[in-house]
Amino acid sequence: MKSFGIAFTAAIAALLTIGFGARVMARASDTGGISGTVHFQGKAPVLRPIAMDKDPVCAREQSGTVLSEDGRVNANGTLPNAFVYISKGTGNLSGHVPASSATLTQRGCIFQPHVLGIMVGQTLQVVTEDPTTHNIHISATTGNRDWNVTQQPGTPSVMTKFSHPVIMVPVRCNIHPWMAAYIGVVSNPYYAVTGDDGSFSIKNVPPGDYTLSVWTATFGIQERSVTVGAGESATVDFTFTGQ
């Protein structure tokens, strides 16, 4: 009887696990995705070297020439640092604000990453890893206040939040004028930033018809219409041109 009870309990547990797994898979199949690549055609801009001699500490932190991020084109003819996001649509775009923070790091007297996405109400954490004083100046935008904080070496992270969506919020360091970053503040979790291959992927998108927008610091903004079906992945590519 004891062995029968153990076997029966194991069987019930297995059925419950299978049922739970099926429900999880069903929920996953209710959504789709959007992926693609941001291409570049034409002559790429000549990137200017950043002179860090104003602060010898910053100069020592870098082992070679540092180039500006704005206008950079990847080796494969695509664009990094493009902010891709769903700007409007018919699907249910509501989403929980992440409990985890989005992090902007000052490393080598450069803001990293250069382009960052965050949801309204999510915490922005600014970290310093440099042995020199920095200043984080987030310019005021519609619905968001001006935020200007000095951060000493070795001090804890500083935190802030945004109360209104904005594309994009510029970030500067008033001490080191070459330091720049951009933050895309959005009201839904469906966004991505392209990397060294120019690609992006936005997952778990509810079915619907959407406008997919892409922002770049140098080459402007584009939009595409896209339809996402349940359990389907849509592909959307963008192409920017230079001189």
Compact overview of the structure:
This protein has three domains: 1-30; 32-95 and 192-243, Immunoglobulin-like (Sandwich); 97-187, Cupredoxins -  blue copper proteins (Immunoglobulin-like), CATH 2.60.40. It is built from two helices and 17 strands. It has helices spanning 2-29, 56-61; strands at 32-41, 83-89, 102-107, 110-112, 115-119, 123-128, 134-138, 147-151, 158-161, 166-172, 180-186, 191-193, 199-205, 208-216, 220-228, 233-235, 238-241.
List its traits.
mainly beta, Immunoglobulin-like, disordered N terminus, four-stranded mixed sheet, about 15% helix, five-stranded mixed sheet, single chain, 2 helices
SSE order, one letter for each helix or strand: HEHEEEEEEEEEEEEEEEE
Q: What is the total number of structural domains?
A: 3
The structural class is mainly beta
Q: Radius of gyration from the CA trace?
A: 22 Å
Overall body shape: globular
The main pleated sheet reads as: 5 strands, mixed
Structure overview:
- By secondary structure, the chain is mainly beta.
- It folds into three domains: 1-30; 32-95 and 192-243, Sandwich (Immunoglobulin-like), CATH 2.60.40.1120; 97-187, Immunoglobulin-like, CATH 2.60.40.420.
- It is built from two helices and 17 strands.
- The strands form four sheets. A five-stranded mixed β-sheet has the order 5-11-10-7-8, with no helix packed on it. Strands 1, 13, 16 and 17 form a four-stranded mixed β-sheet that branches. A four-stranded antiparallel β-sheet has the order 12-2-14-15, with no helix packed on it.
- β10 (166-172) and β11 (180-186) form a beta hairpin.
- The N and C termini lie far apart (82 Å).
